[in-house]
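Re: the multi-chain job from yesterday

Posting the exact lines I submitted so nobody has to dig through the queue logs.
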Amino acid sequence: MKYIFIILISSFLANAQIKTEQLNLMPWPQSINLTDGNFVLDKGFKLNITGNPNPRIFIGATRFLRRLDGRTGLFFNQGFVTGLNEVPNAKLQINCAQNGKIGLHEDESYRLEINSGKITINATSDLGALHALETLLQMLQNSSTSYYFPTAVIEDFPRFSWRGLMIDAARHFLPVDVIKRNIDAMAAMKMNVFHWHLVDDQGWRIEMNKHPKLTQLASDGDFYTQEEIKNIVKYADERGILVVPEIDVPGHGTAILTAYPEIGSKINFDKTTYSIERNAGVFRPTLDPSNPKTYLLLSEIFDEVCPLFPGKYFHIGGDENEGKDWDSNPKIQEFKKKYKLENNHELQTYFTMQLIPMLKKHDKELMGWEEIMTKNMSQDAIIHSWKGTNEGVATGSSLVNAVKNGYKTVLSNGYYIDLMQGVESHYLTDPMPKNTLLSAEEKARILGGEATMWSELASPTTIDSRIWPRTCAIAERLWSNENITDLGSLRKRLKTVSFRLEELGITHIRNKAVLLRNISNNQKSEALEDFSNICEPLKIYSRNIGGTEYQMYSPLTLFADACTPDASDALDFDAAVNQYLKNKNAENQVLVTDFLKKWIGLNINLMELSANAPLVQPLLPLSKSLSDLSGQLLLLIDKKQSVNPSVLKDLLEQCNSKNHADVELAVYNSLKKLIQA
Amino acid sequence: MKYIFIILISSFLANAQIKTEQLNLMPWPQSINLTDGNFVLDKGFKLNITGNPNPRIFIGATRFLRRLDGRTGLFFNQGFVTGLNEVPNAKLQINCAQNGKIGLHEDESYRLEINSGKITINATSDLGALHALETLLQMLQNSSTSYYFPTAVIEDFPRFSWRGLMIDAARHFLPVDVIKRNIDAMAAMKMNVFHWHLVDDQGWRIEMNKHPKLTQLASDGDFYTQEEIKNIVKYADERGILVVPEIDVPGHGTAILTAYPEIGSKINFDKTTYSIERNAGVFRPTLDPSNPKTYLLLSEIFDEVCPLFPGKYFHIGGDENEGKDWDSNPKIQEFKKKYKLENNHELQTYFTMQLIPMLKKHDKELMGWEEIMTKNMSQDAIIHSWKGTNEGVATGSSLVNAVKNGYKTVLSNGYYIDLMQGVESHYLTDPMPKNTLLSAEEKARILGGEATMWSELASPTTIDSRIWPRTCAIAERLWSNENITDLGSLRKRLKTVSFRLEELGITHIRNKAVLLRNISNNQKSEALEDFSNICEPLKIYSRNIGGTEYQMYSPLTLFADACTPDASDALDFDAAVNQYLKNKNAENQVLVTDFLKKWIGLNINLMELSANAPLVQPLLPLSKSLSDLSGQLLLLIDKKQSVNPSVLKDLLEQCNSKNHADVELAVYNSLKKLIQA
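And the result, structure tokens for all chains:
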């Protein structure tokens, strides 16, 4: 009887109909139609696969079962999916017409139909089916006692073919598990290109059999073995993701030249001319384009590295070569004259053109940062557009130039997630330029975009929180219809999507707590957590000024490392201020003053905490400024007392300080609005 | 001026003298003398290495710098330590007389002298020096603004030579990063033997070149490549840790027989006779000791596996062979007769004896669980003592038998950390038997002990919280003087030691929050966390009854997986009850009633939470029982009202239920005391 009662309740609650805007799907599908019903999950839930898919779907389907089981605790009977048509009468039927290939321009579409008694996924290939399974996981709803999928028909396909994430494993080495969990998160966001930045001034990260000096002298022992690389490529393949390796040349060459100084551009080199760079920035060490040994080495390197990566693209960097060592080397100047190369751009083009056949030998297309695009550069090269206002050029201008010049291109300007900017600017950056007339052919050359995570200020412990959840928004920009731009909806969905990344091992939430425990010296402290929710790390290269405050081995265990963009309480406070400014009724006033009161208490608590926590000391000037300003504002708002405007202004400016603990108060703009109103 | 003031304050505070009992050292050193002063850390802190050490000390010293820097945020100038005498005037001088070898009976002693201007570590080898660096890290103190080491002289050495941790990677596969972080934690606790249980009924976890079927058919794709194994062995070596592999035969043989059914003991086998076991327990599949092919296969396996492990010991399991398939196989019965083997014990001895030369060929000594100790077993074998009252024999009886029979032995009975018992019982288990007279020679055969972490109910996400921090107490038992047994001191020190394990990547704290977020459906909930701090997972094989409630792929994401032994609030409540029972003054009464009030509120909050969190539902009966009992106790204690004793008794017994959510209320015994008082 009790059992029947529970079933009745559960099916009653499960039938509460959900609306489309309540769904937390990301990237948002091209088409979704909810119908009137639910598919209720139970222990007997099983899936079956038919068609002619790549075996990666078996692995993906098993992973799907385990993730769903981990969320629901239902103890599904079905264990491992290992073959076709194992459970013909299963309630989830997955049919893939053909074997999906890892690469661009594959048909990744799917159709997901959820009925109350049956779920059907139809996809051209397993690639689409994997996407469908991610969507299905995101469709999961619950009542108080049961889990269910609302019935619906979803038809979906990506807007762009290149939906990438670059991770820089050169500045801070990132162990295999870090890469793998980020690949899992990419797959969850239907991203399909993992660009692996493997070499830079600070380290060479690839095991080399023919040239072991590269890791012996230029990796600090931190590199991927070839087996690990193959293993990661396979792992990515199983998730529908292409891996594009990058070896950055001829600039960013310190690591290579630490091992092989003889191919550097400096004159009078000796064995100690170059050493692994510990700082961040743009450095002089550059490969010598006039030296035949340079090409011999690179060709041997490509011969060994290319076979590790079955994909069609190889990124050779090519960025930020200032050519200083070229200018000061007479031999190189002579070379330029001899080959009638008028400037360093032409010299670099000469250099890059030598690499094209080395890569073509392995059936690879060359890709490089936008600097490689010079007048004589082959149109086979793919141009990676990255510069913008920070670099003194118009946002994404190279993208338009590239497609007009006949190059394929990928956009990263606007997607530099290491700059610690809020999610909105990334979300509203569209690879398809507005206000520029492009032909259909030119548009087709815009392959997509790529979030770029440079790791000068990110460690294995912190990098997930630098990548996620903001990259989800970029993933949506690259997959979904261009009209999907509602910021309110984005923020709302991001809360759930971010939480769900935890099940893939992403550490953005859990490791924040770890960092705060270390900072607090293991004292329990809500104040520290609250403060971290209104502070953000300094943005756009303003942390680590000159690249020398931090070395690559410096601790990234500070408050700024625990903080993230889009500080949650700051967003809530801004909403409260906006509401209050619209209507200064008592209720809205409380919304604002509750924050102000909290911050006064927070300052006191932080001071107490700091008595046994030196790492809390640097936060106190900021928390005091905020507390002082909050006190004045309370007098103004709560007590209706008049407050000296210049005092307010001074206090406000103290809250705008960027001189403490490498963070800024993310509530500054909202406070300013409040004061100016 | 401000700067000088800060310095004055800091040196003033830094000089507050610490007492020995305030130190949070674990394992506690053999001798420690605090003197009157401090060594204050600053950015310029450097270390220098002299003597003739193994290069592992360079890696260890660099790691030490990074960990210390991560805690203090001082941005040490010193980057990588790569050679001898790099910084002759460094304030930390490490001198190692000789190159340490990985193995038993090495001199691991060290002398650590901290003076206010200089720190000196003297050790026979780098092994001792690595231990000294761990001690030094544990010596770290702080004022409000600075970090320092109190001056002291510490002389230290281990009591036992074998201080092990076994991790079962067969039941649940544990990726490389899980193993590595646990090796780091072992090193922090001065443990020196990592016993790697690599094969069991549920999976074969070693890549095999000559016998690929083992992983193809019996690993679900989850295994270590030989390169990964070598990499882990090297990683352990760099931390002074010996790796002892285990391939469990002739019982626990399902995985092997899934690949090679022809060497199984079942009669009339075909290719589907055996399949990877998904449940937990003791199973019939057993290798056929009468079949020459069995020995051929094993010998080839050892030929491939032994070279991966340079250490001297190889564990062949040998446990829990019930011999049922031997009894029912006429061919095996015939074999027994032919070789005059009177029973299955003798047959197993025959089997095991065949393995000794296979291992000796690779210069390895055979080790096995205590079942291998039969009258004809070679005295070269090491006996791993594991049975006790749970198995119906006297605690550790095999240990005494072994040493009396001339075998070397290692104790694990009492150290079965997978049984979810409190830390105290493990801590008070001593490998040296009390009340048994042993000769010095016999005593010397007791090599030490080993914590054993079986993984039927532990996943990569949860296993750290099953191992740590309780294993720290076992490490102390095996290292420190036998008189170090104060439970209050243990618990106090364990709080800090447990927190510090986080910096090594151990996830026992952070992943609990992850599990609770999933259970709460991402609702913020202090109630759920509070409840987890008074609940413990069911103990001693009482979770997963019969081994069939959970399969190896079942979700370990439930409330019981978030809970741990030694539930923190339960310990605090017990202390409060004891204090109250000693003196029922108002102050002590509040200590108790605050808990009771909290639990009434907690039940309400959990009910609210459960409205949107099905996984919270199973907890409600327990939280309601606790709330109801708390209400009655408040009437009794606070209001001085009389309460029906039988009502109290009934409610108390409901609080003793083990029928909900696989947990028990850890406050039951304290509540019982309170009621009976």
